[in-house]
Amino acid sequence: MLTYTIRRLILAIPTLLFISLIIFLLLELAPGDPMAQVPLTVPPEVKQQMREALGLGEPTHIRFGKWMWQFLVVEPMHFVDGMLGTGFVEGESRVISWQTRSPVMDIVAQRMPQTLWVVAMSYVVGILIAMPIGIYSAYRQYSVFDQVGTFVTMVGYSVPPFFSGVLVIVIFAVQLGWLPSIYDTTLVVVDWATFKKQFMQMVLPVMVLALQTTAQISRFMRASMLDNLHQDYVRTARAKGLSEWSVVMVHVLRNSMIPVVTVIALGVPYIFGGAIITEQIFKVNGLGQLLITSIQANDLPMVQTVTFMLAVLIVLFNIIADILYGVLDPRIRYD
Predict the structure, then answer these.
(1) H or E, element range at 246
(2) pLDDT, average across residues 298-314
(3) Residue 196 falls inside a structural domain
(4) Residue-level pLDDT at 201
(5) Alpha-carbon distance 122 to 216, whole Å?
(6) Domain range spanning residue 63?
(7) Nearest to 266 by CA among 202, 210, 213, 219
(8) What angle do CA 223, 229, 230 make, to 5 degrees?
(9) How far is Cα 333 from Cα 335, in angstroms, rounded to an integer?
């Protein structure tokens, strides 16, 4: 397993390099000029000097090489310097945002906690709700619970976040007045009152993101459980006198989790994609809103960095899903 993991991590390097090249070239070909927002009163020669200061006067391959060096070498070493007090990359230029003229990773580090609070919590809540629903729906196939669960999850999976987000705001914030519709990112939890306020403002965005997670995972869980409940080993376990709880929750559940692991692992990067829309709706000052504002401002270094980070998540969780296969199913061996 260790050899397989190392091999997969090594193979991930050229994959990520190719993805980074595609991202860079697509953004290079995209319409838009970072100088478009400069006032018309600025002389053309000054605009040209500004473009050269941003590195836009250099060839494409040079700028791509610089961006990769800064992102893969300078930024990690800058983090090490901050942690250990060393000076390995002292004087080296970092990835700079065209919009704010500050290091991109510093802005990402400021926005990341807000996104993780909402995204991580919504994913955990979605999984905790989806697993029991999928298991019980399969065990009680065609029951009232199964029929209602199927209907609710299909509706939840079909409704996009921009619609469900506005809907819950209208119901719970405007009509009922129970929950706030705007996420206060400046709130600091220091006591019970601020914790309660933080919890209340997280309910709506977490609800919207968890809805699709619950719908997707519960359907996969149900289908996988149904596929295993009728296998020969289940009948053998029951014939040996094992309790129904042991048969379903130990033997069947473990085998059923193998395909579901893929959905759960690969769903982590995509929940960040859903957070882009949700953060715009609830005014969460996180990575999703940062990506939208950077696109609008033609801030290519910021867009490249955030997009590439999402690509890293996808590749990483692909590897994690493959490793978990071997953990859940002893029959799977990676030689």
Answers:
(1) helix 244-246
(2) 85
(3) yes
(4) 85
(5) 14
(6) 16-84
(7) 213
(8) 110
(9) 6
Please name every residue paired with 103 in a beta bridge, in sequence order, or none if there are none.
96
Which residue do the tokens 């890293």 mark? Answer: 312
> If pLDDT is split at 50, 70 and 90, which confidence band does 288 have?
confident
Structural domains counted in the chain: 2
Distance CA 324, CA 263 (A): 12
Res 41 pLDDT > 70? no
* pLDDT mean across residues, the chain: 81
Query: Is there a domain that residue 274 lies in?
Result: yes
Distance between CA atoms of residues 266 and 318, nearest Å: 6
Amino acid 20 reads S
Q: What is the spatial distance between Cα 276 and Cα 278, in angstroms, rounded to a whole number?
A: 6
Residue 60 has pLDDT above 80, yes or no: no
Domain shared by 71 and 116, yes or no:
no
Query: Are the CB atoms for 284 and 118 separated by under 8 Å?
Result: yes
Q: What is the band of 264 on the pLDDT scale with cuts at 50, 70, 90?
A: confident
CA angle 67, 73, 74 (to 5 degrees): 75
111 and 79 housed in the same domain: no
CB 228 within 8 A of CB 252: yes
Q: Quick one: tokens of 155? A: 């509706």
pLDDT higher than 80, residue 333: no
Q: Are the beta carbons of 34 and 63 closer than 8 angstroms?
A: no
DSSP letter at 157 equals H
